[in-house]
Fold each of these.
Amino acid sequence: MKTLFIRIRTISPALYYCALGHLALFALMFIIAQFDHRQLMGINLWTKPIKFAISIAIYCLTWPLLLQYLPFERLKKRFVNFTVFAMTFEMLAIATQAARGQLSHYNTSGAYNALVFSAMGIVIVSQTLFALYMGIMFFKVRAQQLTPALLWAIRLGIIMACIFAFEGGIMASRMAHTVGAADGGPGLPLFNWSRIAGDLRIAHFMGLHALQIVPLFVLFSGLKNARPAVVFALIYFVLVSLLFYNAMLGRPVF
């Protein structure tokens, strides 16, 4: 693990330290949550920023391992800089809204809350479009430093993650993530996904982590040929799509 972290730091110090900062925030907010018992929609208001901090840290640690295979240095630098900005902005918005006792998402009650929600949307859509562009750029890469299986896993993992990132737009248009009930009902421990209705966050979460899951499947399985990697990615895409369809029908998974 230490070797992996050193490698990530060597490839992209900016993303490495951004990830460390979010891990530190994760620990800090976890401690704060033990003393601040205010709640939003039935859960401790620090639960959401805690989850986002760990998720952003994983995101920032993942990209250097993918970017090392991309040759376009100037483009990579711009992507890294924008990613650090976007992730820091999102975390700052979510954490400060929690500190104010306000929802960060779907909150248009008042000019400031609406401004924060709108700005978060603009930044994260920009980040997703940039990430999608990087995924498309991987189609210009030849399988020389990496196997055909890993190259296709990276391509499809990025594209799939971006597709389900845009699912956030559907939630924003509905101003809710629960289908068939109001947000805030009984939920799965830790994730808080609804146990009584459809929850669009499940497909959102699983789709976003295609960025890690598809390449890791190839690495751990030892696949070399592209075809089984593509088949795995397609099966994964279908399964996550079914999760989305199930949620839109208002059906709980758990």
Amino acid sequence: MNQRNGNEAPRLYHTMRCKDAEAMIAWLKDVLGFTERVIYRKDGKVIHGELMFGSSILMLGQDRNNEYTKLVGDLGGRRTDAVYLAVDDPDALHDKVKASGARIEMELRNTEYGSRDFAARDPEGGLWSFGSYWPKVGEEPLPG
């Protein structure tokens, strides 16, 4: 994978599933000083949110019963976070990760928001997601 330097936007994003995403967003903003980049809501719940802190973006959403949340873990005491890495060529990385023997948790797919994603476990069982979606501070978010 190409390692660039300089003013490139971050590629590594921490993600969270929250029991009460609205309360978490308020706490992150009011207490820690995060600012809102975009919040997508559906049926009154936060589907995907992006909060900025400096040049970093934290992605979070309401815990819900879907394929991805099941991979991350439930709220019954397990970790509910995951790491997201923006990559140039998800297909090539998928093949490399798979060849390494890592467990692929979510096969390559095209998302409804225009990314090409997959998810895999690291050697210690941590969940990583990789995709072509690469949000940047200062850039307009995708339409919700």
